[in-house]
Amino acid sequence: MPGKVHVQSNINGEDTDFLCEPRQSLLEVLRDVLSLTGTKEGCNDGNCGACTVIMDGRIVDSCCVLGVEAQGKQLTTIEGIASADGLHPIQQAFLENASLQCGICTPGFIVAVKALLDREPKPTEQRVRHWLAGNLCRCTGYDKIVRAVLDASEKIQASPR
Amino acid sequence: MASNIVLSTQEYNVVGTRPIRHDGTDKVTGRAQFGADINLPGLLHGKVLRSPHAHARILSIDVSRALALPGVRAVVTSADLPRLSGQVADLEEAAMVTLKYRSDNCLASDKVLYKGHAVAAVAATSPHIADEALALIDVEYEVLPPVFNVLDAMKEDAPILHEDVFTTDMSGEIANVASNIASHFITEIGDVEAGFAEADVIVEREYETGMVHQGYIEPHNATALWHADDNITIWCSSQGQFNIRDQSAQILGIPVSKIKVIPMEIGGGFGGKNTPYLEPIAAILSRKTGRPVKLTMGRAEVFEATGPTSGGYLRVKIGVNKEGRITAAGAYLAYEAGAYPGSMVNIGAMCIFGPFDVPNARVEGYDVVVNKPKTAPYRAPGAPAAAFATETVVDEICEKIGMDPLEFRLLNGAREGGQRIGGPRYLRIGCLETVRAAKEHEHYSTPLEKPISSNGSSRRRGRGVAGGFWITASGQASAVAGVNPDGTVSLIEGSPDIGGSRAVLAMQLAEVLGIAAEDVRPMVVDTDSVGYTSTTTGSGVAFKTGWACYEAAQDVKRQMIKRAARIWDVPADDVAYSDGVLSHRSDPELRLTFKEMAARLNSTGGPIAGRATVNPSGVGGAFAVHLVDVEVDTETGKVDILRFTALQDVGKAIHPSYVEGQIQGGVVQGIGWALNEEYFYNDRGEMVNSSFLDYRMPTSLDLPMIDTVIVEVANPGHPYGVRGVGEMPIVPPMAAISNAIYDAVGIRLRTLPMSPGKVLEALWEKGC
After folding, report:
1. Fold for domain B474-614?
2. What span, in angstroms and rounded, lies between the C-alpha atoms of A29 and A14?
3. Nearest Cα to B580, choosing from B594, B598, B563?
4. In CATH, what class is A89-158?
5. Angstrom distance (rounded) from CA B386 to CA B384
6. Residues spanned by CATH 1.10.150.120 within chain A?
7. Is A136–B699 a contact, with Cβ atoms under 8 angstroms apart?
8. Residue B312 contacts residue B154 (beta carbons within 8 Å)
């Protein structure tokens, strides 16, 4: 078995060093090496979006990225969305709109929505549906998730942080 | 969204409001601990070796090469589990369960019965090493001919899965030749022959539905630690920690008191997380290694080796007279149980004519084993396929007699005092109220718009309606409510929260005590920490565990009244408790709020905790009507959902947002079942689409908003009128969509899913 590789990344605003096997995915590194278990595994083949993280401004399925590929990258996971001041408006909107039932897909959705609203602050319903097509939710039928995104978009417009 | 229809007159303070769920913050910040999130000192990782064959005898298993791999700590096979005889245990949901089958489904002993059947398992220092070790286990198989389809399996010359399965008949009589038909039953009401003789129009049709999966996003997982004193701790996400404890104890051959199951957050279940697959394996791997062992399934394993719902063959025949009144109905249901007996055909039979007042009926059912994974319940198990058949036959009858389909349902709808075949007489139900709400809904009267011209002339639009019935279930539940000095209440309960039930239970307690939902702290606890609570199934948590919370609150209330009487030195009868305030009935000076009283408890006689255990009857039966507009592309066969309105009698919506959410989610699972989802098998019984990409559940882009109308006809059998919500909404969509496709392009589809290929074939057959 090959030895472990030393990787340096910035995760949720903090410079982070970790060791990982070359075969370990970023998802495994986040969960098993760094104990950032908010990022979930649903399929391990890039089809459900439960493991969505932001890497250098783009959303990726962390199960389809190797841990070693995080070298020199900026990562945002679900643990990095809220601040010391409290929940992010997206998180608040998910709560107020009852947008989660079991909650396993929720971290992936919130990270994906963060990336969307960072680049497109006022998406249409159709744009939201298109953007989130890579995130599967089996409980809600997406209705209340889409409403939460539109709601969060409005609230962020009304009082930008 | 249309306004909800409230026919219950009782006013509440908390029930019916929309507080933020108590576990919400942890779930939107990634802090909530689901099953796979557990980590323990010295944790080992387990993986399961699965059969490549659909049907084979296991001749030998050699694990020596796997054990020699550095990092491997143990390998187990069925030889490490106790030999269970054919003893039958009365476990939950699936009713009677043959323990040997449950054990063999965890780890096959003599035969493998489906591709993916577990054969051996490894514990190693990393999941990758465990994976490598699987390839080093040598299993010798004698491959046997398989059988995959229910009708093929029922043939006399079919390959036999079990030498010890003999058809059990209604009378309990058991045949003497081994068969794939595990059971056969007939239920009758009235005089069916006379009923059909009275009919002026009779329609009889055949249906086929394929196997589909619940599709929860969280794969199964289990972590176990076999302690040195032979006690076992299991961490897992399931729909019932007590059920997993009891079944694991049976499979491991140890008393239930030796196992503590700690319920982790559960990432979806829909009926599929009531069966122990990994827990006993984790336990014996831990026993062998002395270390905690975690197993998690991959997505392909979830598809191939857990419990999807039955595929089946159905035939439904309905007769009506000139006035449109049903005179008789008949049904034949043959459901695939998968590898071991126990499909939900009996429940399908109970529900198949549930929405209708049928004077004469005969329903025949068959439970059939095939070389596919053992089925498990999936949201209203047994009912969706049954409704697909009945509700499309009804649509055809309405067309033949020229009657509006909702008018037909008003004329023939189930009503109070009527009797469902094989069931008790209906108490107060909301079937007709729901149909009326659909008829008066603006969706029903708004004309369909023409397809957008830019989409070309190949598109056609149609509208369909269908109803449905679900029995709903109750069960045992326990709750303890401890009053804290700051005026809050800690609520300890045993129902895993699969979709907001902590809030729904806290609200039922808060209503009694006149406090805010936010002042209740609900906790789902392990099997050593609360009384027995049956599984989160049957749409039963708001009903049964809600009732336990209601009773626990009543217990608190009684003790509070006694305490106030003692403090004021007055008879308890003189103390009133209303809206969270204790007061003397005649002396206005004597008054204490719940919060003031809570602060004084410890100094006035000690703490107060309420407790309750319940096993209530009185479940109400749920009814729904769905309206759907579709657009069919006649060039590609693709069907798009344009608009969907789901109307449902829920009795009383405790938390309307989560009621809407349950309805929306159930509808969308139904849309997936109707249009996309199916297991594709090759002729070797290998599932060839065992990934989310190829199984193709609905995404956000496939759907419109799902409108809901909550009808509230209070269930007289529950303190707040709750009926149960979650399962009903998956029952009508397949029929509603089939009826809409007919309205659009004139083809009647009677197999699921109604995928583009099938739509095109039917269009070509029709000459379009």
Report:
1. Aldehyde Oxidoreductase; domain 4 (3.30.365)
2. 16
3. B594
4. mainly alpha
5. 5
6. 89-158
7. yes
8. no
Taking the C-alpha atoms of residue B91 and residue B240, their distance in angstroms, rounded to an integer, is 12
Beta bridge partners of B333: B314, B365
Six-digit token string for B26: 């942890």
The answer to whether A44 faces chain B, any CB pair under 8 Å, is: yes
Q: CA–CA separation, B552 vs B550, rounded Å?
A: 6
Q: Where in chain B is the domain with CATH 3.30.365.10?
A: 1-11+428-472+619-768, 474-614
For residues B642 and B631, is the Cβ–Cβ distance under 8 A? yes
* CA nearest neighbour of B220 among B329, B294, B129: B294
Looking at the DSSP bridge assignments, the partners of residue A8 are A17
B522 confidence band (pLDDT: 50, 70, 90): very high
Report the candidate in B547, B703, B577 with the shortest Cα–Cα distance to residue B639.
Answer: B703
**What CATH number belongs to B1-11+428-472+619-768?**
3.30.365.10
Instruction: Please name which of B551, B646, B572, B559 lies closest in space to residue B605, comparing C-alpha atoms.
Output: B559
Per the CB < 8 Å rule, is A43 touching B30?
Answer: no
Q: Is B189 within 8 Å of B183 (Cβ atoms)?
A: no
pLDDT tens string B652-680:
999 999 999 999 999 999 999 999 999 99
- The model's pLDDT over B111-155, given as tens digits with 9 standing for 90+, comes to 999 999 999 999 999 999 999 999 999 999 999 999 999 999 999
Question: Could you tell me which residues are beta bridge partners of residue B76?
Answer: B121
Look up the CATH number of domain A5-80: 3.10.20.30
Q: Are the beta carbons of B595 and B484 closer than 8 angstroms?
A: no
d(Cα B440, Cα B275) in Å, to the nearest integer? Answer: 43
Is ipTM over 0.85?
Answer: yes
CB contact (8 A) between residue B128 and residue A21: yes
Chain B residues close to A31, C-beta within 8 Å: 36-37
Strand positions, DSSP E, B69-211: 72-77, 88-90, 96-98, 111-112, 118-124, 138-143, 166-168, 174-178, 181-189, 201-209
Chain A positions in Cβ-Cβ contact with residue B669 (cut-off 8 Å): 138, 141
Whether the upstream peptide bond of residue B753 has omega within 30° of 0, thus cis, is: yes
Selection from B98, B137, B120, B173 nearest residue B339 by Cα: B98
